[in-house]
Amino acid sequence: MPAPQILTELEPDALAEALAGLGAKAFHARQIYAWLYRRGVADFAGMTDLSKELRARLERTFAIPTPAVTARHRSADGTVKFLLRLGDRREVESVFIPDTPAMTFCVSTQVGCAMRCGFCLTGRMGLLRNLTAGEIAAQVRVMAHDLRLADQRFNIVLMGMGEPLHNYDETMKALRMLAADCGLGVNPRRVTLSTVGVLPALERLATEPLMPNLAVSLHAATEELRDRLVPVSRKYGLADLIAACRRFPVARRERITFEYVLLRDVNDGVADARRLAALLHGIRSKVNLIPLNEAPGIPYRRPPDARVDRFARTLAERRVVVSVRKSRGRDIRAACGQLIVEGARQAPAQRAAALLDWSSRSSA
Ligand code: SAH
């Protein structure tokens, strides 16, 4: 018997084509997508508007791998962290955040990460493997169904484990599968892709017909410091990254988000803030300041609130749009401690919750 085709790796058109080979009709592909993504039904037996005979044929031809929820934790503020087990028993973490202010799913694009940023635990794991498009999309499918939110509007951020632009094709394919109107129909404008700035892939992203919002993990305003904190910057330097951002086609009324993890006495001084404001001058941007989430093994500290405030004020005085994470870290950290996974796997959830909980500051 031939190995089953993985149905969840097929975009609607490819699924329709594969079905045609079975003598089924194109509209059946749309029905299957609806069952899978809108209703969370991941077995043919449950797809009751398909004929018994067709279901039996599908059963023989396709597999519908679906990650299993191995841990789920709800924090007091409503954030829910999922540990999902993939077909090869590797695990990824995905997060639901209820109020950022929209409902948001934070998903991973790789198991581990090759970027090795100095303050990030995921980087310590190294890259174990890329996720497939089906596995990236499945995180949303599984969480939306688990929380009964598939019929609601929500945002997606690619801020879990991994570097999305280091797994470009599968990431973009996942966004197309999630955008399919026969499925969840998530408009790419509701998706934010966060990247350290893998330049060739960023240039490619600029040409995509379905383009997500862009968030760039900057963390430093000089080449020397960024080289130290974000090793990939040694290959794709800060000046080139900023030039690519200037060229990036930002939709009207949108801005590029620049993430900046604040590390005490490393990048959190007034001079750093001034340099950052100058660097971003003329770019339609907003800065998200993330006071470091401290963790054992991370050789940096979180700055005190007063320093965070001063940094934000320095930016705002220079008319940079800036926001800072609200302090609900304690609750999240407690929540994280209850997830029975090793530290490296906890990091993304804690980070995502931190990242997405912004209290906006108005610029002066
Ligand atoms: N690889 C992508 C997306 C995943 S990381 C990227 O780097 O953008 C999402 C964000 O979390 C990044 O801005 C990253 O720098 C930040 N981050 C990593 N470790 C952190 C920590 N310990 N505390 C706070 N933010 C962290």
Structure description:
The chain contains 13 helices and 15 strands. It is of the alpha/beta class and 364 residues long. It has 2 domains: 5-63, DNA polymerase, domain 1, CATH 1.10.150; 68-363, Alpha-Beta Barrel (TIM Barrel). β10, α7 (199-205) and β11 (213-217) form a beta-alpha-beta unit. α1 (12-20) packs across α2 (26-38) and α5 (133-146) crosses α6. The radius of gyration is 21 Å and the shape is elongated. It binds S-adenosyl-L-homocysteine. S-adenosyl-L-homocysteine binds at residues 115, 117, 119-120, 159, 163, 194-196, 217, 259, 261, 290, 292-293, 295, 298, 351, 354-355.
**Distance linking N and C termini:** 68 Å
How are helices and strands ordered from N to C?
A: EHHHEEEEEEHEHEHEHEHHEHEHEHHE
| Number of H- or I-type helical stretches | 13
Q: What's the architecture of the largest domain in CATH terms?
A: Alpha-Beta Barrel
- Poorly predicted ranges (pLDDT <50, ≥5 residues)? 332-341, 355-364
Looking at this protein, list some descriptive labels.
2 domains, 13 helices, elongated, TIM Barrel, alpha/beta, 15 strands, eleven-stranded mixed sheet, binds S-adenosyl-L-homocysteine, two-stranded parallel sheet, disordered C terminus, about 375 residues, DNA polymerase, domain 1
